[in-house]
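[step 3/7] fold_predict: job queued, chain A
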Amino acid sequence: MIEELAGLERQALAAVREAKDGGALERVRVRYLGRREGLVSGLLRKLGTIDPADRPAAGAAANRTRKTLEKALDERSRELAALAEADPAHVDLTLPARRKWRGTIHPVSRVVDDIWAIFRSLGFTRARGPEVDTEWYNFVALNTPLDHPAADEQDTLYLAPGLLLRSHTSPVQIRTMERYPPPIRIVAPGMVYRRDTYDATHTPAFAQIEGLVVDEGVTFVDLKATLAEFGRRFWGPGTEVRFRPSFFPFTEPSAEVDVKRVIVRDDGSRETTDWIEVMGAGMVDPAVLENVGYDSERYTGWAFGMGPARAAMLRHGVSDLRLFYENDMRFLRQFA
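[step 4/7] structure written:
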């Protein structure tokens, strides 16, 4: 049997060398290594008929032959592929060219930039703060007691006693007021972290952007006028804005801000959406002003907060927030 295997190996190697294309090479593989009709496989099935003393040597020879042929087939396959690629006759010049991948701004980052550009034109300054903060800045200074549900470990990510990943960008407001006297007019974008379920409308880490105005004589009228102007600039000139009563520990009175958009389609038709909630806002609670040493009898202020990712969902008609964070290039390349 060993002599038969050697003869089959010589025949097979010669056939591999003579194969001119992938089809011919596949026929060689089937003829010699095919499971049912392969010549080498046929010899292996005869191992049970030879003398038991000769079986180990015959089995080892058969395995060597199979490995030698498999290696030769792989090498010849690569050679044929290289020859086909180098042959101009095999190049289809009618195929469309492949565009090079190029980087672009993430759609959520673009929304943050657009929001910031609007408020910058209204006289606001950009402010930043640490993402790891204390209970004082994240809760207590914002008129939120530590027995509030938001301060519970089920909602907030604590790193150590009294130390946490900020759950909103409002601590930037406190740090800014501690550092500077009024008047203050800032926008604070940044990442925030909450113990939220990762689903179509929530993520445990997401971008947020907040604004703060503090000065003498600031009223709710200023808040409404500024946010209505923002809504028209961001969503379009036909956007309607409304304010609904709400509650936040750090503002009083508080409001939810809704917009009703007018969508102009490619064919010129127009569609008005239902009311959509886009942010929370309100007048800064006097207790918050007093926590940073401001005279709450002299100064008043207002603040707002929104999620740029949700604004991006509304802008682009995306129904699942997770699409922005899964790094699927088929999705993200639409915004290039």
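[step 5/7] annotate
The first helix runs from residue 2 to 18.
The longest strand covers residues 205-215.
exit 0
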